[in-house]
């Protein structure tokens, strides 16, 4: 009788789960009924892999700083996290948060062996109390990052020791008093633990894990109210009221904290199911854009929030953390505006702050960046070296943390749907080996040069025919998308997701044509930015690289170098553009995408074969020629381009041809252009001119 009763309860539970959650994916672990039924399910590390130019980008990362850093940077060489006697705080976990996914996405044996030299001491460090990591570390913050490392490592390897370490640590948090002070990193970033916590709950279904997360939410910084009231608006910035300190108030204005925290209300929404927390996410993003928004999808913070001027900087750490926040939020909310922004960051702000060979990075990038040098600038709290492309141009946190950007983006390009299908989240060359339908394994490949080109070919490889849906994200900027499959041609308009559910046979294809027409975006002082798809375009400025030594040991190793970059051509151009006919006077040229996708001619590229740098001679993947006019009064101020003069600007000079390249290909750039007053120049805008 008990056996039959158990079966009845089990069937009832399954029926209730399906009715309550609409659809439940049988192939991948989504949230159970105790949590909000998320829009999508992130696939385990290694399910999605790069191809085409994205694979080249990861190979460049492996050949650059990420693949070499722990061979020569003392903080990693002697890290306590790998059994040494050195740095024991966040730098080891930060580095691993990018190295682990990179190693397994490339199936690189050398990098995988590196990973093991770190992971084995970490796994062995777990104590009876549940605490783990270096003995001399007593702070919970770096463990929040290490948790994410072990989560990814388990997904890639299935090593159950990682689950055991995480379970013991969350039990430690559950049984210990709350210790999340607002004045410390572990307090303002406490909900970073919830990323791994909810994942661990999905693996184990231990109810006390949710109690642990609830305690963290209750006893740590209240980011939800912060986003509702948002004290650091443009008025606070203009009046210099944003606190530039490292106390409790200053930490709420810290750019990286903000980039991390935007996901915290969304994470808690899974458990609370309270719409207030969902709304707080959108309120926060809107207020970032309104008060501190920058071209490239990011918000400013040259350590603290810094307003909308294109001369203000944005820290690299905040770019990769904002990307990760959006990836987490998209899984929960499934809102395609989040994926639109993710692409903006990945295809502009991320490559724009590194050299093409990924041997050097900036701490702060600028939308209008006409000089890269060790000179005094109007940063809020950062040092004078912050926009050098180098090894460690300011605080070392970015040197440790920058590595997660590309690998985690690739992990999130495809997700599982609740109806046992696939969702294409972010476009780019990739391959996903995934279970769909009733557990059938298929390989779906995406061939494309997106975002440099709008043509996408998706091919399904399967041993037997299988029925499953594919959700195609329709970018918000796309007026109309053409989708072709199984003899059908569909014009997709005014919807954010196009679902195709078919019985797919081996070799079936979906062709997607995304419109790559130009559009403009109004920016600071009525200036304009030009976009094509998700890519911003910047003025190509002739440049001269100069190797320099700044105020620390450069740890010269292979391609590690510090670069100043000086302009060798004029930069103070206004655009001659007609909003009613943007293409008038403009020509777009697509070029082959090279091994270094975000390079342009004149860049310096490291060669491992020759052991030296050489000047790159190929054009960027897309080059735009347009018309401009110099504005003599627009000059450098405090070693940065002054704010763009208020548009429209009265014409004073001769019309010239100017060249634009993708933002990520431009180490020197103007991205927010003043606009010339074409009403005073109507003759050049007559048809045919």
Helix content: 25-40%
Give the averaged pLDDT, no decimals.
94
**Main sheet properties:** 7 strands, antiparallel
How would you name the oligomeric state of the polypeptide chains in this document? single chain
The residue ranges in which pLDDT falls below 50 over 5 or more consecutive positions are 1-21
Q: Total number of helical segments?
A: 21
Q: Which structural category do the helix and sheet elements fall into?
A: alpha+beta
Which shape, going by the Cα principal axes? globular
The value of Rg in angstroms is 25 Å
* Percentage of residues in strands: 15-25%
Distance from first to last alpha carbon: 88 Å
Strand order within the widest beta sheet: 2-7-8-9-14-11-12
What is the total tally of β strands?
27
Q: What would a concise description of this structure say?
A:
By secondary structure, the protein is of the alpha+beta class. Residues 1-21 have low confidence and may be disordered.
């Amino acid at each position: 009788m008990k056996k039959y009763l158990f079966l009845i309860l089990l069937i009832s539970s399954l029926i209730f789960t399906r009715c309550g959650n609409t659809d439940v994916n049988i192939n991948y672990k989504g949230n159970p009924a105790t949590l909000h039924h998320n829009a999508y399910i992130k696939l385990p590390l290694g399910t999605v892999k790069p191809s085409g130019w994205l694979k080249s980008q990861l190979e460049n990362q492996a050949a650059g700083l990420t693949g070499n850093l722990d061979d020569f940077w003392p903080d990693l060489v002697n890290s306590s996290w790998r059994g040494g006697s050195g740095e024991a705080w966040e730098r080891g976990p930060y580095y691993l948060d990018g190295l682990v996914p990179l190693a397994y996405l490339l199936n690189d044996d050398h990098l995988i062996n590196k990973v093991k030299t770190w992971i084995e001491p970490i796994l062995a460090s777990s104590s009876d109390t549940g605490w783990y990591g270096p003995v001399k570390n007593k702070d919970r913050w770096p463990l929040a990052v290490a948790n994410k490392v072990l989560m990814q490592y388990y997904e890639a390897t299935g090593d159950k020791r990682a689950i055991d370490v995480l379970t013991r640590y969350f039990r430690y948090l559950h049984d210990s008093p709350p210790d999340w002070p607002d004045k410390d990193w572990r307090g303002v970033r406490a909900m970073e633990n919830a990323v791994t916590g909810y994942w661990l709950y999905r693996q184990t279904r231990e109810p006390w894990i949710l109690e642990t997360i609830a305690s963290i939410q209750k006893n740590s910084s209240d980011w939800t109210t912060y986003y509702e009231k948002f004290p650091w608006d443009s008025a606070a910035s203009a009046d210099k009221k944003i606190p530039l300190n490292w106390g409790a108030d200053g930490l709420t204005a810290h750019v990286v904290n903000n980039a991390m925290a935007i996901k915290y209300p969304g994470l808690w929404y899974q458990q609370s199911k309270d719409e207030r927390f969902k709304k707080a996410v959108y309120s926060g993003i809107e207020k970032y854009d309104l008060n501190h928004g920058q071209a490239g999808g990011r918000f400013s913070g040259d350590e603290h929030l810094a307003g909308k001027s294109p001369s203000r900087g944005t820290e690299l750490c905040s770019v990769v953390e904002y990307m990760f926040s959006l990836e987490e939020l998209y899984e929960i909310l499934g809102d395609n505006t989040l994926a639109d922004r993710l692409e903006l960051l990945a295809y502009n702000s991320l490559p724009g702050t590194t050299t093409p060979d990924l041997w050097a990075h900036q701490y702060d990038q600028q939308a209008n960046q006409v000089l890269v040098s060790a000179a005094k600038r109007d940063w809020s709290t950062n040092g004078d070296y912050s926009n050098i492309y180098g090894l460690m141009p300011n605080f070392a946190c970015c040197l440790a943390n920058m590595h997660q950007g590309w690998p985690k983006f690739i992990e999130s390009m495809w997700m599982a749907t609740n109806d046992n299908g696939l969702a294409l989240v972010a476009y780019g060359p990739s391959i996903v080996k995934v279970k769909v339908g009733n557990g059938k394994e298929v390989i779906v490949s995406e061939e494309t040069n997106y975002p440099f080109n709008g043509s996408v070919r998706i091919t399904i490889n399967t041993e037997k025919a299988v029925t499953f849906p594919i959700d195609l994200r329709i970018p918000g900027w796309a007026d109309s998308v053409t989708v072709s499959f199984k003899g059908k041609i569909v014009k997709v308009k005014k919807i954010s997701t196009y679902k195709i559910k078919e019985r797919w046979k081996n070799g079936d294809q979906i062709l997607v044509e995304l419109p790559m027409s130009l559009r403009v975006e109004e920016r600071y002082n009525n200036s304009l930015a030009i976009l094509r798809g998700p890519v911003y375009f910047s003025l190509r400025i002739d440049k001269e690289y100069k190797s320099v030594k700044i105020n620390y040991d450069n740890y010269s190793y292979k391609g590690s170098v510090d670069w100043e970059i000086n302009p060798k051509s004029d930069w103070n151009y206004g655009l001659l553009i007609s909003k009613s006919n943007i293409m008038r006077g403009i020509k777009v040229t697509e070029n082959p995408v090279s091994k270094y996708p975000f390079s342009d001619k004149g860049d310096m590229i490291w060669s491992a074969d020759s052991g030296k740098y050489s000047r790159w001679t190929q054009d960027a993947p897309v080059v735009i020629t347009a018309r401009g006019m110099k504005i003599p009064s627009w000059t450098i101020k405090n070693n940065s381009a002054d704010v763009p003069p208020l548009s429209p600007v009265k014409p004073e000079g001769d019309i010239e041809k100017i060249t634009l390249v993708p933002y990520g290909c431009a180490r020197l750039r103007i991205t927010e252009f003043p606009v010339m007053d074409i009403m005073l120049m109507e003759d050049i805008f007559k048809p045919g001119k």
